[in-house]
Amino acid sequence: MLNRKSQIVKNETNYSLLGHNTFGIDARCSRFLEYGNEEEARQVAAILRHNPTPYLIIGGGSNLLLTRDYEGTVVRSDIRGIAFSEDENAWMVRCGSGETWDDVVAETVKKGLPNLANLSLIPGDVGASVVQNIGAYGAEVCQFVAEIEAIEVASGEKRMILPRDCHYGYRESRFKHEWKQQFLITHVTYRLDKAFQPSLAYGDIRQELERRGIAAPTASELRQVIIDIRRAKLPDPREQGNAGSFFMNPVVERHVFDAVVAQYPQMPHYTIDEDHEKIPAGWMIEQCGWKGKSLGRAGVHHKQALVLVNLGGATGAEIVELCNAVRADVKRKFGIEIKPEVNVI
């Protein structure tokens, strides 16, 4: 058994994960490892290879629902740092995987770059951003990923991963499937083209800009609008446990959409391509009467039906029970399956 305890940022046993999940669930893990640089990531990979117990790699815990104590090792990155470089066409932003995502957005906006502004205030870490392919208001992080640096657990070797190899899709990547738990991400480099024009037509952005009398927003103005919209709709996890949007918006085939919209002509939707439409899961949940309702100590947020909240003392199992009830009602009413975006453990 490899013993590197003194050389790793954190190596604890019987460790509480209360501070590592935004739902506020006080589950514990058998062991907790945190790495603060590339060499420590290699040491953690060696420990995982030599230890037969299961392990779980997490980020900031903003996409995690714990339903029990985890009988294994939990691993996270504490690698920090944001470094800028540029050429005539783009800025390159290399970030430690343990950096808070919104801090990265804030730093790019300070330089007058609007590229990431639509992704403002999304909770979580840099490493998780490329695993989940986070997105909001017409933007996805995969648009900006240039390169991912990671230590492969099985070999301990450094790998340079290009976005084209990640098979990115809506809240999807290979890191969530065949690459799951195989890499300890250390750094992510984002490419921000200098000629970039942000999307302003999605959701409430244009309406809010018009209300403020802003025709051509600066990066800072756009970020502030996004932050204000999100804060008006979404609960602060420091005040009420939640993981942001709990469900993914379903993308359905044209014939399914045609059948549903014929019955509900007022249904909002977004065209993906000629064969697929995206339907807001929050709208369907609201039509089923769940918005603002609760099941025991778990509830559906009163402003945004996509968000499930811990009303105080809820267990992960109670939140799963609410999730299943909501999904069943949406399926019954619309014939459409909605799936959790959150990783349930």
Descriptive notes:
The structure is a single chain. With 345 residues, the chain is an alpha+beta fold. It contains eight helices and 20 strands. It has helices at residues 38-50, 101-110, 126-132, 205-211, 219-233, 254-263, 281-287, 316-334; strands spanning 10-16, 28-35, 55-58, 64-65, 70-77, 82-86, 90-96, 135-136, 139-140, 145-152, 158-161, 183-193, 241-245, 251-253, 270-273, 276-278, 294-295, 298-300, 307-310, 343-344. Strands 6-7-12-10-11 form a five-stranded antiparallel beta sheet. Strands 1-2-5-3 form a four-stranded mixed beta sheet. The chain is globular and about 60 Å long. Residues 1-6 have low confidence and may be disordered.
Helix and strand topology:
Blueprint: E1 10-16, E2 28-35, H1 38-50, E3 55-58, E4 64-65, E5 70-77, E6 82-86, E7 90-96, H2 101-110, H3 126-132, E8 135-136, E9 139-140, E10 145-152, E11 158-161, E12 183-193, H4 205-211, H5 219-233, E13 241-245, E14 251-253, H6 254-263, E15 270-273, E16 276-278, H7 281-287, E17 294-295, E18 298-300, E19 307-310, H8 316-334, E20 343-344
